[in-house]
Amino acid sequence: MINVKFFGLIRLSIKTNDIDIEANTVNEALKKISQQYEVELNALRNSIILVNDKNIIHLKMLKTRLYDGDEIKILSAGGGG
Amino acid sequence: MSTKYGGYAGKVLLIDLTTKEIDEYPWSDEDRELFLGGKIMAAKILYDNVPTHIKPFSPENIIAITTGPLTGTGAPSSSRFNISSLSPLTGLLASSNCGGDFGLYLKKAGYDALLIKGKSKYKVWIEIVEENITFHDADGLWGKDTIEVQEMLPERTGKIVIGPAGENLVKYAGVFSGERTAGRAGIGAIMGYKNLKAVVVKGNKNIEPKNDIKPYYKKWIEDLRKHPITGKQLPKLGTAGLVSIMNFKKVLATRNFKYGQYKDFERISGEELALKHLIKNIGCITCPIRCGRQVELDGKKVKGPELETLGLLGANIENKSIEKILRWNYELDKLGMDTISAAGTIAFAMELNEKGYWSNGLEFGKNHNLSNVFSDIAYRRGIGNELAEGVKHLSEKYGGKEFAIHSKGMELSAYEPRGAVGQGLGYAVANRGGCHLNSGYLVLFEALSLSIDPYTVRSKAELGIMLQNIFEVVSATGSCIFTLYSLIPAFLINKPNSKLAMLVNKIITFPGAGKLINIINRSYEGVIPINIPMIPHIKAISLATGMKMNFGKFKAIGERGFNLERIFNIRRGLTSEDDSLPKRLTEEPQDLKNPKSRVPLNELKRKYYISRGWNLDGIPKEKTLRSLRIGRN
């Protein structure tokens, strides 16, 4: 099982914090989330995505493999303070 | 004094509280061209009129309340005002900026700026209705909190007030207007010292732009609404929305800046605020962004906390209750204090207590009594009397300088700079002290909206200078700094994983990029006579005032303002030693496995001074000042 948490604007639209899904890659995980929670797949793909606190741009992007117990954090980018 | 330029009221009011004399301060069109308005105008006026070696608490100190030429012309997010003075916290020039509607009201009363000198023998509030200025006895208002006192003052007016903290000369007392604050640097205490409780303004004068600027403003507002930050992020999550990203990027100051991440960050995040406590978002007059939070507290609708308050009264003191932060934010507002400095001082006091340097009863993670502590600070009771002096003072008395988190005497805001070293440089060189905005706000590029390498020194000085100059002049127009999000194209924010975004992030810190940025920084104002759509203020100034304005001139005004503040401070005795950060941030890596996770300040400063056209002691060179047409005396 992969644990997924949401942050930023995406959290406001999904309204859930914490879900568990089965997926072998980040791309697969995003597709499942998109279907289950009616979120645009593109919006997910264009978020900042961390796997075990590492940004996927430093891993293998959407092809990053996932293993049981991994944690994904999905955050819509922003700024302002 | 009239002006050929649109956007200005054409008058600067000078009030002497000692004699109660009213005068007009001479301010020419040449001054307007060189200094524009806002904080730069204030810096020039204070530079010319505040005697070099006086103490902040003295009648010769001047409070300069200044507006910009866009205020009152209908520009989006343009009702802000600036208030400057000698700071009791730092002893240096400090400017503080505030939203709300006071700036607009001051212009409509017929004034671009209000200067207040002297000291009233009795407690007073000033009422300005166009040319009619009345001094009222403030005995019945003294002691009232910032919300109460505004309710007692005339309705449908612009107001600035102080609370008990300002009355009792708390070093970080703020100036309050509506639900907004000119929080930093203790200018509320200067008002308190002068026995000035409030200034109330009203008028019906129109501010005429030189040209028909409505179509331009309409487009500007549309662009603000379309941009992901000003159109979505800020309205929906407020500045509070930054907590999560700051935690991920290790720039969320935790436990008096010991760490950059907080395990309970979700509990104090913008998402938590929006989902559990937000009633609606609110904004300043003229603003389409509307970043303010209205929350419910004890059955009342009150203003909710900004990011700084969540971070510093959350992670930085290891408090995971957002409900407490809502309450403390409201209390600090009522008492009239800067939440950043108050919270930073509490965190430092907690560590002093933990290490046995000062037994004050304050502990990380245990905070049930903080409401009482804040009240004690405002009324200078018990340990509150010492806490009211700020971190620098406490470190000089009790020790712990290595973890006294301030620069130039002003406490740092919530961004932990060992996760974004450019921000660290900015904190150290910002003219008013540990300010994240006056610093150039490099953390935006290093962690928040972009992801340039946060640990490299490459390009940081040069980019920091460019941003500092731009922030300076945009502030001087009367605009809210959030309108500068236009600097970051939407596609970079909407597609952070794209090849283009990754390329942009890499290019900015590529070897040689800094030199290119600096060529732009150091170019004379005539060299870049172009408009830049990413900075809509440039054309807005042209249209509103009738001044010839382009990027070259615009950035030169900002550079002029920054250097003017610098030479003011040098005249007060500032040296390069004051461009400092505590050793915790420069010598202890945030992450022991990453030796680069600390601020290499000496190296950054050196590059910064050279790039600014200063000598290695941090003093602007004569030719730099000459090219900016500011002298030194």
From TrEMBL, chain A:
<dbReference type="Pfam" id="PF02597">
    <property type="entry name" value="ThiS"/>
</dbReference>
<dbReference type="InterPro" id="IPR016155">
    <property type="entry name" value="Mopterin_synth/thiamin_S_b"/>
</dbReference>
<dbReference type="InterPro" id="IPR012675">
    <property type="entry name" value="Beta-grasp_dom_sf"/>
</dbReference>
<protein>
    <submittedName>
        <fullName>Molybdopterin synthase sulfur carrier subunit</fullName>
    </submittedName>
</protein>
<dbReference type="InterPro" id="IPR003749">
    <property type="entry name" value="ThiS/MoaD-like"/>
</dbReference>
UniProtKB/TrEMBL annotation, chain B:
<dbReference type="GO" id="GO:0046872">
    <property type="term" value="F:metal ion binding"/>
</dbReference>
<feature type="domain" description="Aldehyde ferredoxin oxidoreductase N-terminal">
    <location>
        <begin position="8"/>
        <end position="205"/>
    </location>
</feature>
<dbReference type="InterPro" id="IPR051919">
    <property type="entry name" value="W-dependent_AOR"/>
</dbReference>
<dbReference type="GO" id="GO:0016625">
    <property type="term" value="F:oxidoreductase activity, acting on the aldehyde or oxo group of donors, iron-sulfur protein as acceptor"/>
</dbReference>
<keyword id="KW-0408">Iron</keyword>
<dbReference type="Pfam" id="PF02730">
    <property type="entry name" value="AFOR_N"/>
</dbReference>
<dbReference type="Pfam" id="PF01314">
    <property type="entry name" value="AFOR_C"/>
</dbReference>
<dbReference type="InterPro" id="IPR013984">
    <property type="entry name" value="Ald_Fedxn_OxRdtase_dom2"/>
</dbReference>
<keyword id="KW-0004">4Fe-4S</keyword>
<dbReference type="InterPro" id="IPR036021">
    <property type="entry name" value="Tungsten_al_ferr_oxy-like_C"/>
</dbReference>
<dbReference type="InterPro" id="IPR001203">
    <property type="entry name" value="OxRdtase_Ald_Fedxn_C"/>
</dbReference>
<dbReference type="InterPro" id="IPR013983">
    <property type="entry name" value="Ald_Fedxn_OxRdtase_N"/>
</dbReference>
<protein>
    <submittedName>
        <fullName>Aldehyde:ferredoxin oxidoreductase</fullName>
    </submittedName>
</protein>
<dbReference type="GO" id="GO:0009055">
    <property type="term" value="F:electron transfer activity"/>
</dbReference>
<dbReference type="InterPro" id="IPR036503">
    <property type="entry name" value="Ald_Fedxn_OxRdtase_N_sf"/>
</dbReference>
<comment type="similarity">
    <text>Belongs to the AOR/FOR family.</text>
</comment>
<dbReference type="GO" id="GO:0051539">
    <property type="term" value="F:4 iron, 4 sulfur cluster binding"/>
</dbReference>
<keyword id="KW-0479">Metal-binding</keyword>
<keyword id="KW-0411">Iron-sulfur</keyword>
